[in-house]
Specification:
single chain, 83 residues, mainly alpha, 59% helix, BBLN_eukaryota
């Protein structure tokens, strides 16, 4: 009979089923802890990215306002200027 991946099944001794995969409860706990740390780091990066995005939007709006003021000082109308 074939296994879930199409491989031939290997007989498993009684009681050895949990030991076959090589991972015990401690290993799963360590992996879970590492995944939690990675998730925390990704959340922190996402917050920084959101903050930078907001700051860049503010800078863009400030630059647009400054450009309009310069255009008005030069006697141009905003519709005359190239975007």
């Amino acid at each position: 009979m074939s296994g879930p991946n199409g491989d031939l099944g290997t007989p498993v001794e009684a009681g050895a089923e949990g030991e076959e995969d090589g991972f015990g409860e401690a290993e799963y706990a360590a992996i879970n802890s590492m995944l939690d740390q990675i998730n925390s780091c990704l959340d922190h990066l996402e917050e920084k990215n959101d903050h930078l995005h907001a700051r860049l939007q503010e800078l863009l709006e400030s630059n647009r306002q400054t450009r309009l003021e310069f255009q008005q000082q030069l006697g141009e109308t905003p519709s005359d200027a190239n975007p």
